[in-house]
Amino acid sequence: MGPKISRRQMVAGATAAVFAPALRLSAAAPLKVGLLLPLSGALAREGQSCKRGADVSTGVLAQLGLPIELTVADTETNIDTARTRAEKLIADGAQVLVGAFDSAHTMAVAQVCEQRGVPLIINIAAAPNITEQGFRTVFRNFPTAGRLTTDGLSLIKDLLSVTGLKVEKAAFLHNNDTFGQAMAGAIGKLAPGLELPFAIGETIAYDGAARDYAVEIGRAKASGADLVLMISHGEDAIKLIREMVKQRFEPKAIISPGSPGMYEAQFYKTLGKFGDYAITNLPWINPRAPLSKTLLAAFGKQFPDALFEMNVGFTFEAILIAADAARRAGSTASKGLLEALPMTNLSEHVMIGGPIAFDGKGQNNNIHSAAIQNRDSRPVVVLPNENAEMTPVLPMPGWQKR
Amino acid sequence: MILDQVVTGLLTGLIYGLLALGLSVIFGVMRIVNFAHGEMSVVAMYAAWAAARYLGLDPLLSLIPIAAIFFGAGYLLQRGLIQPFVSRPDYMQFILLISVALILTNGALLVFGPEARGIQVDYAFDSYEIGTFLIDKVRLLAAGAALTLTGLLLAFFRFTLTGKAIRAAADNRTGAQVIGLDIGKLYAVTFGIGTASLGAAGVLMALLNDAIPRLGPELTLLSFVIVIVGGLGSMTGALAGGVLIGVSEALAGTLLQPSLKSMFSFALLVLILLLRPQGLLGERS
């Protein structure tokens, strides 16, 4: 009988095989990556989550023979700071910039990169105009806002079709901040063309900082909706669900067509069983990809108490793209990277979708959203089938039947 | 549905009333506006969270010890920091208390971080069903506690010797000094009572909301709106203002748009300032 190979060894072997050519570069100087994130200010939570993806990337990429030297700069959730920090990173020798989570910040950084001839790989920023400016140095590995919304709504149709659930009327609850308003506007425009099998009845815009949502849920319940569409932005998701339980409002499904809130550690911790079965449609890590398994293992080891979320995956991938370009260019110089990046064709990556490749505008159009359902207080991929870890459960069990 | 929301607004308003009462008591007696009011309430919310997390104490049980601690802290704060500013210009008092507010907010950020801290009680998701009515159990218990505490506070000022002395000092400071009342001590007790009251309200708020440092300024503003609507310095006015704001927010959200809730209470404030500047139950100065 031959030696036994553990599953972990198998995964490591598979990923190493994929990146075998990269080993040739292992002796070369590390690529200097400048990472811009909102680590303080209003977007601090999201920025910190992205940073965990960057922190774990150094070790994982080193294992793959893709050495990087990471310098992190805080944009302080401020556009001017984002611009000056980008200048400083480049002046300090960064050969490629990654960032910057917020669309407005990213646009400011993109202008700096374009002037300085340094590539910018966007981890997260959805504003469509970023890749419509004719920039030669900007590469985005994140869907545009329109694509996010279209995918999010289409997946609702798929979920209803797969589970056979019939719903007649939806109540649409959305935060009235910039993000919520933009998403609500996009849904208003796109929904009619998608021929959704239900009517969107009551649309309720709420203040994200409100102390409670008794009135909002009261209205949703009174509307007779059997589906709740929700665009939340964090703690508001917890308060809304809590209020649904208290008011005994029992929709058949609670689905977010692409917003944060319902797949976060605090949500699971606070709501427990009442947080289960809620669904969010958004780009997510492919649990079946070998590199994802390596990344998840490294993440779990380095951050045992943190939850792996979308921000982590996309930040990791942005750095992976930079390192891959340096490998193919055989150089870490910005000029070489700019020549290699348009030729990117990374089939082994972590987020759900096809190979990472950029169109003439620097946009990766191969990213697909997934339906994530909360099961036993953790996010689980339930659609698309090829990536699913479980089958979706709809209608949701009643609050008192859990 | 409207009646449901009115009841919810009424219950919330009773807690708002207790919260604003602390501000009203301190201003009514000392003529000092506590600009750190909301921030102190948030500290009480964190205290309730810590008592629940580390001692397993239900907020309805930790309410009294936390209020007592807040009384002591308020007493000492008045004696050590605020007393020298009592006779100084308003802007100095303003700067002093804004500084206290900033220290408390940043201290909370430093100790607890920016994440929300919520209390999980067994009855967090329970509600009572009476006919077609649904009443949130947590809100009902918190409002009941707030009403009881408000009643006790009103009784204290009306029937006890210390309460009467404080009212005398509020009515006529010089006269109170002439008859031998220790004004400094009475002011410290008053500040202690006001702080205990906001501490108790903070604990009850912790049952309904997660504690988060940035909630402080919002609660300060809410308390200002309530006491101005009810009548600055009037204790019953604070309670009436709280109930009015709670109910009007609920009705505005139900009949208009939920995102207009806060705007509606500010509109009410403007209306009161225009038509009855002394507030609903306040006295014209």
Structure description:
The complex is a heterodimer of chains A (402) and B (285). Chain A is of the alpha/beta class. In chain A, β1, α2 and β2 form a beta-alpha-beta unit. Chain A starts with 6 loop residues before the first helix and ends in a 19-residue tail after the last strand. Chain B is an all-alpha fold and 285 residues long. Chain B has one domain: ABC transporter involved in vitamin B12 uptake, BtuC, CATH 1.10.3470. Chain B is built from eleven helices and two strands. In chain B, strands 1-2 form a two-stranded antiparallel ribbon. In chain B, α6 crosses α8. The longest helix of chain B has 29 residues. Chain B starts with a helix and ends in a 10-residue tail after the last helix. The mean pLDDT of chain B is 91. Chains A and B meet through β7, α7 and α8 of A and α1 and α10 of B.
Labels describing this entry:
heterodimer, A: 402 residues, alpha/beta, Rossmann fold, B: 285 residues, mainly alpha, ABC transporter involved in vitamin B12 uptake, BtuC, 11 helices, 3% strand, globular
Write the layout of secondary structure elements.
The complex is a heterodimer of chains A (402) and B (285).
Chain A: H1 7-18, E1 31-37, H2 44-63, E2 68-74, H3 79-91, E3 96-99, H4 103-116, E4 120-122, E5 138-140, H5 145-163, E6 169-175, H6 178-194, E7 199-206, H7 214-222, E8 227-231, H8 235-246, E9 253-256, H9 265-271, E10 279-283, H10 290-302, H11 310-329, H12 334-340, E11 369-374, E12 379-383
Parallel strand pairs in A: 1-2, 1-3, 3-4, 4-5, 6-7, 6-8, 8-9, 9-10
Antiparallel strand pairs in A: 10-11, 11-12
Helix pairs in contact in A: 1-10, 2-10, 2-11, 3-4, 5-6, 8-9, 11-12
Chain B: H1 2-30, H2 37-55, H3 59-82, H4 90-112, E1 127-130, E2 133-136, H5 137-159, H6 161-171, H7 173-178, H8 183-208, H9 215-230, H10 235-255, H11 261-275
Antiparallel strand pairs in B: 1-2
Helix pairs in contact in B: 1-5, 1-8, 1-9, 1-10, 2-3, 2-4, 2-8, 2-9, 3-8, 5-6, 5-8, 6-8, 9-10, 9-11, 10-11
